Amino acid sequence: MKIAELSDDIVIRRIATPDDASRWRGGFIGAYQTVFTGFPYFERWFPSEAEGVYKKLLATPENVTLLATRGETQVVGFGVAIPIAFKPDVATSLTGLVSVRHTFYLAELGVLEPWRGKGIGRALVRERIRLIDDTRYTHVVLRVSMNHNPSSEMYKAMGFEEMGVYMDVSAMRTDGKVTTDRRMFLSKVLSQVSLD
Ligand SMILES: CC(C)(COP(=O)(O)OP(=O)(O)OC[C@H]1O[C@@H](n2cnc3c(N)ncnc32)[C@H](O)[C@@H]1OP(=O)(O)O)[C@@H](O)C(=O)NCCC(=O)NCCS
Fold first, then answer.
1. Cβ(153) – ligand 1 distance below 6 Å
2. Closest Cα partner for 125 from 4, 21, 1, 24?
3. Is the distance from the beta carbon of residue 109 to the nearest atom of ligand 1 less than 6 Å?
4. Cα–ligand 1 centroid distance for 97 (angstroms)
5. Number of H helices and number of E strands within the chain?
6. Atom from ligand 1 closest to the CA of residue 112
């Protein structure tokens, strides 16, 4: 389903049917591997693992899975959001700070390097947030790497604030070593809660 059209023939699509899922699977796997193999994550991802991420996110109830596509098969970016209740390790870290039932989590965001700086990342964030049901969800949270990372500036410019909560994430790096990097949580209010 087309969500928005950007310059350079980029189309933001929501993956919501099995046909869409299989059509864009290969493009997602390639883009996901390429983005997270590079700065600032340097993670090692096998195609089967990236495919597992794709399937798991698409099987998550209420997922908002957006791809920035070009032409019939090319995926140049991705942005996914899910209810935080389906991301238990993150929900546990934020217990007492946000309502698990009423919070959405921005799970993945990436744009291939040659396509960065053209507004695709911002569009993926903006459209993901727009598609969250703000009558049921009051907050959206995410975590960013604390290594120098342009995404935290982008999120702050879009109204996200630091929560003062951090999480260490272990991952296999491209050099074959498992190391941890520190992620910081940011949050944004989606709606005012009705108290009646
Ligand atoms: C973060 C990321 C998705 C941004 O994508 P993008 O398409 O370049 O984003 P945009 O073009 O919409 O730019 C958004 C902001 O990013 C920053 N930015 C973009 N390109 C930049 C660059 N080359 N150098 C420094 N900052 C840059 C700017 O602050 C920009 O704000 P502006 O619109 O006010 O200029 C992309 O850099 C990426 O995939 N990074 C690696 C993966 C990652 O860090 N994911 C985030 C996980 S939370």
1. yes
2. 4
3. yes
4. 28
5. 5, 8
6. 39
Query: Does ligand 1 have an atom closer than 6 angstroms to the CB of 27?
Result: no
Are 129 and 160 in contact by the 8 Å Cβ rule? The answer is no
Q: How far is CA 24 from the centre of its chain?
A: 17
Entry pTM: 0.93
Contact assessment for residue 38 and residue 53, using Cβ atoms and an 8 Å cutoff? no
3-state secondary structure of 83: strand
Q: How do residues 68-116 score in pLDDT, each as one tens digit?
A: 999 999 999 999 999 999 999 999 999 999 999 999 999 999 999 999 9
Query: Which numbered atom of ligand 1 lies nearest the CA of 111?
Result: 39
Cα–Cα distance, 196 to 193 (Å, whole number): 9
Torsion angles phi and psi, residue 90, rounded to 5: -70, -40
Work out the angle between the directed axes of helices 120-130 and 150-157 (0-180°, nearest 10). Answer: 50
Domains and CATH numbers, the chain: 2-189 (3.40.630.30)
Distance 196 CA to ligand 1 centre (A): 40
149 touches ligand 1 (CB under 6 Å): yes
């390790």: which residue's tokens?
A: 89
